[in-house]
Every structure is written in structure tokens, then in C-alpha cells.
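Deliverable D4.2, example record:
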Amino acid sequence: MDVHVTAPDDRSRLEATREGKYLTFSLAGEEYGIGILKVREIIGMMAITPVPQTPDFVKGVVNLRGKVIPVIDLRLRFGLEATAYTERTCIIVVEIQGDSGSVPMGIVVDAVSEVLSIRGADIENTPTFGVKLNTDFILGMAKTDGGVKILLDIDRVLGTFQFTIH
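Output generated by the structure prediction step:
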């Protein structure tokens, strides 16, 4: 019987890479977090220009200070039910690493919560669900006073879908 034990220094290295400040937000009643270094700004909802022949989760593009930025509805990207936007709905502009370098993208979320400092020791790996699920986009599960926050690897969430505006 083979038993795989993670060496203590491997665990502490993993903790150190995930430790840090996270912008937390809600989506369909669940709390998520994105590494604060990925966040460029938070803006209120604004007019989004639809782009034909894109997946449903691509809401379109916005003109942010002269730069055209694609906007993804994170609810739809995760296969959650669409909902009407409210005064708390906002767009988080993130910077993801694409094939051509750094790319700004907007993600629509239900509401921004707060910025939390999360220790590496408070972040656990994604549990196995007993079935084959793709959870590669999840950095880990952060244990907080208020429960669990799902920490996202936003490069992987958005990196599988990129389009270029010419």
C-alpha cells in the first residue's frame, strides 16, 4: 500500500504561495475571493455593448477611459442562474495572464464584500467530491469566521476563454 505524505516544507511552501490579501465578493449567495494583486479596480454597472456570436456568459465590452474591456458575467460562467442586476452589482476589473501577456477583463459579481488578509494555514485544498469535477480554477478554500470562502485562480477562470478586440 502506497501512502503519499506531503513533506512539511512542501505544505509551508504551498501555504506561503496562497497567503495574502483577497478581495471577497458574493455570487448567488456564496462568498468568493480573488487575490488583490489581480484586481485593478471596482466599478459600478455601466452600459455593456453586446458582442455577437460569443458565449452567453460574455456580456460584451465596456469603454473604460478609452480602453475597450471584455466583460464576463461570473454567474453565467459558473453555470449559475442569471439574475437581474441591482444597485450592489458591480464589475471587478482584473488583470489576467494571457498568451499575449497581461489582459484586463471585467467580471460581473452580485456584490463586493471586503478585503481580507488570509493566512496560508487557513487555506485548505479543494476537497474531492467523489466524482470527476474540474476544480482547477479553485486555489483553495479559506476558513474564516463567517464560514468558507472559495478562492479563485482568476487566470484559470477566465484564461480558458479569451477573445481579442481589433
